Amino acid sequence: MANLRLPPLPTIRDIIRLYGLRAERQLSQNFLLDLKLTDKIVRQAGKLAGAHVCEVGPGPGGITRSILNQGAVSLTVVEKDRRFLPSLQMLSEAAEERLKVIHGDILKFNMEEAFPTDLKRDWQEDPPGFHIIGNLPFNVSTPLIIRWLEALSNHSGPFIFGRTRMLLTFQKEVAERLVAPVKDPQRSRLSIMAQHLCEVKHCFTIPGAAFVPKPDVDVSVVHFTPLKEPLIDLPFKLVEKVVRSVFHFRRKYCRRGVESLFPLERPDLTDEVFQKTDIDPMRRPMTLTMEEFNLICHAYNNICLRIPGIQEYNYRLH
Ligand code: SAM
């Protein structure tokens, strides 16, 4: 294979100084300067030799360099802040055609069109040689993962290529929620929504001192591999509604959350859910297993199919 290592380059610290790239606190920008650490982060994605990668929010390009040095054949980076474009362009020249720089917002970026269609794999096959990697601000990464989980459940967006793997950073507490097992105090809507669709791995926590400037919160690296079969095989929005309702009353019995799915005058429908699923209505939400959420979602879905208008019911409007 051709030598895919980058030629010697100025350090990221020098790049920041040369290009005057002060981190904008208002935009929650925190940069990683230590290439040993960015190498360690990128290794969590698995083997990248020969792979295609989309990096979101490259900033001054620390993670970008590690992706290139680990042998990705093509890397497309999507960066919103135009101040980073000249330094990324310099990196692109050093990477000899492997790096494509896009000035844009990842929330509006159309990934389907940016990568070759021959990357596509059938959903049941091994994941494609296409990865998403990014250290984004948390106010972007948390809504983005929900959006990508929905795309994953529809095999759309980045998942038209098959079971695309993602390596993303989150505030430590969010990472803990993403991986929280049953009975864990962090178990929440995010745990169920992520784990019913993916194998989720909390790789490690990055020490705050590794960032410039140091963020106010701890940062964790999380890896997602989409499952061949979702553990709850129903439309994303329906599952999310049930799970959100149950965890909305996280300190109450799970009956309270299920009740909120139905009009006040129909307590019989809540009874029906617990009779059909054989789940004790006095259990706390965080003790419910994935299989039990699956049963509750199916019981709710059956009621929605039978009674028009139930699925649209929103207890907050009544
Ligand atoms: N990845 C770099 C690193 O680890 O040093 C920079 C991390 S900084 C926390 C987040 C980066 O994401 C910034 O460069 C910021 O401009 C970029 N960004 C923020 N929102 C974005 C969006 N919606 N689309 C693309 N890039 C975004």
UniProtKB/TrEMBL annotation:
Principal location listed in the UniProt entry: mitochondrion
Gene3D superfamilies: Ribosomal RNA adenine dimethylase-like, domain 2, Vaccinia Virus protein VP39
GO-annotated molecular function: mitochondrial transcription factor activity; RNA binding; rRNA (adenine-N6,N6-)-dimethyltransferase activity
Keywords: Methyltransferase, Mitochondrion, RNA-binding, rRNA processing, S-adenosyl-L-methionine, Transcription, Transcription regulation, Transferase, Transit peptide
Pfam families: RrnaAD
Class of this enzyme: transferase
GO CC, alphabetical: mitochondrial matrix
UniProt keyword Chaperone, yes or no: no
Family: Belongs to the class I-like SAM-binding methyltransferase superfamily. rRNA adenine N(6)-methyltransferase family.
Protein name in the entry: rRNA adenine N(6)-methyltransferase
